Amino acid sequence: MGKEVRTDVETLRAADADRQKVADQLKLALDEGRLSLHEYDDRVRDAYAARTYKELLVLVSDLPRPGLSATDVAARRQAEKRREARRMPTALLVLWTIWASLTVVNLVVFGLVVATVDDPIYPWPVWMLVPGAALGAVTVGVQAIRSQRH
């Protein structure tokens, strides 16, 4: 068969403009005190010698975006950890979706029955509150356990 073509961005050839962007980012890192002059010289030399994006990305992988302080980086990491801790597990999301769907179906059917029958109708959709309350208690418990771990 023919030669396999890889489409990974990292394997693509870098252009002069890409090398210049990395060199500019390295200069900002030097100005912010993130790199020593020796590190800067080595990395700029490697940037201009780089042939692929992978070779360029390695040079800036340990640097935050220009203009970010260590406090900004730490705050973003903490915010991401808090967001992850609040995120509901997929199994619970599926259960809530199923419960909500069944509740909507029950309410629609109940509404249609009430609209078409003259006699008083027992409000059976109220029983959907029982599994909803149980699911709510499980969700609160799971989130409490997850927050204690973090």
UniProtKB/TrEMBL annotation:
Coiled-coil features, chain-numbered ranges: none
Keyword Plastid: no
InterPro entries recorded: DUF1707_SHOCT-like
Name this polypeptide is given: DUF1707 domain-containing protein
Presence of the UniProt keyword Membrane in the record: yes
Pfam families in UniProt: DUF1707
Domain called DUF1707: residue spans: 12-64
UniProt keyword list: Membrane, Transmembrane, Transmembrane helix
Residue ranges of the TM segments: 91-114, 126-145
